Every structure is written in C-alpha cells, then in structure tokens.
Amino acid sequence: MPLRGRSRFPEGLTGAGPGRILAAVLAAALAAELAVLLLSPGDTGPDPIAVDAADWFSADQIERARDFRGGQRNLMIAGLAIEWVALGALALGRPGWARRLLERAAARPILGAAAAGAGISLVLALLALPLGLIAHERAVDVGLSTQDLGSWLFDRVRGAGIALVLAGIGAAALIALQRRLPRLWWLAGAGVVVLYATVSTWLAPVVLAPVFNDFEDLPDGPLRERVLELADEAGVDVGEVLRVDASRRGTALNAYVDGIGSSKRVVLYDNLIDDADRAELEGVVAHELGHVAHDDVRRGILFVAIVAPAGMLVVALAGTALARRGGAQAGTPAALPAYALTLAFVAFAIGLAGNQLSRGIERSADAFQLELTDDPQALIDLQRRIAVTNLSDPDPRNALDEVLRSHPSTVQRIGAALAYGP
Question: Could you say which of 66, 123, 258, 394 would form a disulfide bridge with 410 (CB–CB 3.0 to 4.6 Å)?
C-alpha cells in the first residue's frame, strides 16, 4: 500500500512524464558517446589485416570455444534477466511481505535504507547462485577452473558480503541525498558516483583484492630486471610489479594494471609467468606498460565523470516514476527497488559504451607493445596461446558478443600484428 504523507519532492521531478524520461535517456546516450569520442586514444596502431580464424586455430578449438563462451554468455543474460525481474517485482510492491518490510524501515529512513539495501543485495546474491553454480561447473568441466565447490562457494560468500556492505552504504546515501536535496539529489549523486569510482580504484587493489588472492613482489631475477628495463625504455613509472596466485582458481592466462597513486601496480598471473615464454612475457609487460603510459586507469574514471550526471538524471526521473507506480514515495526505503532497477539498466547501457572505449584502449596498448618490443610474432603467439588456454572465441560472430567485448577479438589483434610487420 502507498505510504501516507505528502512527498517532499517537487512536482517537477516526481511528475516527469515519458517525454522527459526519453529526453534524459537520449542525453545520457549522447554523453556516453561523447565520452568515448573525447577519451579514445589517438594512436591505435595500423588497421588490422583481415584474418581467417581457421588459418590460426583448428576447427575443434573454434567450436569448443564458441560452445563454452556461448553457454556462459547465455547464463549471464539469464542472470541479468532474473535480477531485473526480481527488482521489478519489488518495485511494484510484490511480494506483499517484502513491501511491508520496506515500509516498516521508513520509521528510521537512513538506517532503514541501509538495512533495505543490504537485504536487496542479499536476495539478488541468492537468486544468482544457481546460474553461477552452473557457470562454475561448466568452467570446471572444460578445465578452465580448478576450484572445488567449497572454495568457490566461499568466494561467493565473501563477494556477497562485500556487496552487501556497499549496497547498504549506497542505499543510505541515496535516501539521505533525496531527503536533503529533493530537487538536485541526482546531481549530488553523480558526484558520489565519481568519488566512489576514484576511491575504489585507489583502495580496491590494497583492500579488496587481497581478500581473494595473495600478491607478492615479482621475485628478483631476469624477468623482474627485464620489466624494469622495459619500463625505463618506455619512460614509465611502473609502480609495483606483482605476481598473483591466480592458479589457485583456474588456468587462465592474464595480466592487468590497477590502482592510482600509491596503489598503482602491474599484476601478472602466476599461470602466465610459468607458462609463457620470454618473448611472450615481455610482450605482456609492454602491453601493460602501455596502459600505464597512457594513464588508462584515470581515463576510465574520467569516463565515469562525464556520463554520471546524465545517467543519474535518468535514474532520478525513471526511478521516481517507477516508485510512484508501485505506490512508494521517493526518499523512503520502499522506493529503493525502483531506483536499483533503473540504476541497473543505466549501468548496463553505459557499460556498452564503456566497452567501446575499452576496445580502443586495448588496441592502443597493443600498438604501444609493438613499438616497444618490435616483435609482432610474440603478440601473435601470445594471443593464440591465450585464446586456446582461456577458451576464448577467436572470431565472435554474434552481434551481442561484439558489444559485450571489452577487448578486440583475437583475429583482430593478430591482424594488427600482421599489419605492423612480419
């Protein structure tokens, strides 16, 4: 049932019709594309030569990768659908007992919002568990995951616990802003989103990542010496160079750059260190140094800063309209599912634009690698090895796969190396 009492929100916000919501959606889409245009790196190397995956991979390797990745993609889509349907039901006041709990939380709005946000996060984690288990078992079956069920469940519990705390804090902040700034809470919320992106990028490598993995300095030896030499040749302050025990969970080969300021680091999977040859490892390091040289982590934060205001305006208009349709007043815990659902939609849509930016960033890092190492064959060999080991589809043909990818496809990266030179 609707909460009693007059809403504190001006009619100009709560009364937004479809036209204003559509205009906000278009503004958010334009902001996302503008961010991609402004932040895309200028040097992405030569245009890739057209490459036929069959020339580089066997038919069995291609079929096996497409079967696995297609199944994982479908499970991910099903998981999103379950999450969105659950949030939609809660937003419309179903089931009744859940709405009654949310309404009771209004007695202490901020603390009640924190509890409600944590509760919603827990429900979503439980709903995601069955499909997550299927995805895990499929990864075990193909040899990509080495985790037993107990270890995997423990990871899920830890991840859910962190998400629960963050959801509680986020929900309390949302309701507090709505009650304090009825007209402009969405703009203040955008500032909070940017602040969160910045602080989490700084702290996550040293606070959250060690919860799941052990990190250690890359040991003294030829590899560390070569990493420092490459960094010196590139004129890059590499920060820390760490080895992570990724093999405790799977066989995937990977490396990444993370953190800003004092937490900046290049992280190499132990699988990669143990299995790749010297030239391939140098290529990986050069690629990651490219991300450092181009300041790509900060580029990601700037992307958030550009898209957050328009995105939060969509959340404000559409979320408030949905909350009212479900009989909940903005600024109360009962409205949280409506805002969570619209935020999930907006984050997913903006994430697709973010993937577009990411693909350009990865091409630029590949170009940096080729210029630094002058070894296109190492890039080709590594991409082939990664595709086979990680069961990556070397040439995705599904349109959905194209927009969901954050990296160029394997054949595109091989084609770029061939375009660079023999």
Answer: 394
